[in-house]
Amino acid sequence: MSGVWGWFGGQSAQKQKDAPKNAILGLRSQLEMLQKREKHLQNQMDEQDVIARKNVSTNKNAARAALKRKKAHEHTLDQTTAQISTLEQQIYSIEAANINRETLLAMERAGKAMKTIHGKLDIDKVDETMEQLREQHALGEEIANAITSAPIGEPIDETELDDELAELEQEQLDNEMLRTGTVPVSDQVHQLPTAPNPEIRRKAPVHAEEEDEEEELRKLQAEMAM
pTM score, two decimals? Predict the structure, then answer.
């Protein structure tokens, strides 16, 4: 039995919800009819005006009758125009009221939704959650610092690196001496004189002979060109 009454209750609620829409539809239908009537009356007035102008010189009685009909149509047209204005105002008022009602219902639903969301929350729980987040953030920072600051593998002996670098520099100087046959200025100042290098002495005459041969070759080329 309760289901039957609930069904009727649901029907009543649906009718209440559809009432503004049905009212607007009815008003718009009536408005459309009045607008057609307005157009028809205007056409009737124009026709009577044409008749009056046509008979004003030849048949004044016909012209007078046409003007009377025009006045009657004009009076009816004024009433119709006023009715159209009233209907338009009613449609606007109902639409505005319906929009206000729908807006209020939407706000009420939003308020209920927020109440449901905040139902299990309070300021103490929020503070507790934020404190936990801060603790975890601090823990993460400590872990990151520990990972990045801890050295991996055995520490490097800086003195050993300096010695190896000095050996590389000395090796480069020795190679430079062998390539150029000269002693760097720093070595000339700090080292004692050494015996002449017979290998260097032997290289000097060979180099002079090669230059003499090249000079003779250039002279021969010049003579042949002449």
Answer: 0.46
